[in-house]
Amino acid sequence: MTEPIQFHMIDSAPTPVGPFSHATESNGWVFITGQMPTFPDDDTAPLPEGVAAQTKRVMDNLVLVLKGIGLGLEHVVSARIFLTEFKRDYATMNAVYAAHFPQGKLPARTCVGVTGLARDALVEIDFIARRPG
User: Fold this and answer.
1) Nearest to 67 by CA among 102, 108, 104, 32
2) What is the C-alpha to C-alpha distance for residues 22 and 14, in angstroms, rounded to an integer?
3) In which domain, by residue range, is 69 found?
């Protein structure tokens, strides 16, 4: 039986930079909107310097969204990563990203280079998660 789609806005997560929900959920599948390296308590503050700091902030923001709906990184089945400086930042971003997951428990992933991101960010990451059965 198909359940209605749930639209989640998380009070502790950063203010969205566009017209979207932090996450939507249908039949146990959770689609988490790409997070930017903005700060939850002040989305007008300058972004962190460098891709390492920005990747950490993005991952922290994703964790806030996951926690807000009762999930964690262990529920993530897929990630998409967008980098504005792919060749320069790929290895650094990978190191920060991978440190958030237990070894051998990495979600499926796609990483692409893009020409630009909102707020002139260097990195954006979105997730697909699955609620335990």
Assistant:
1) 32
2) 9
3) 6-130
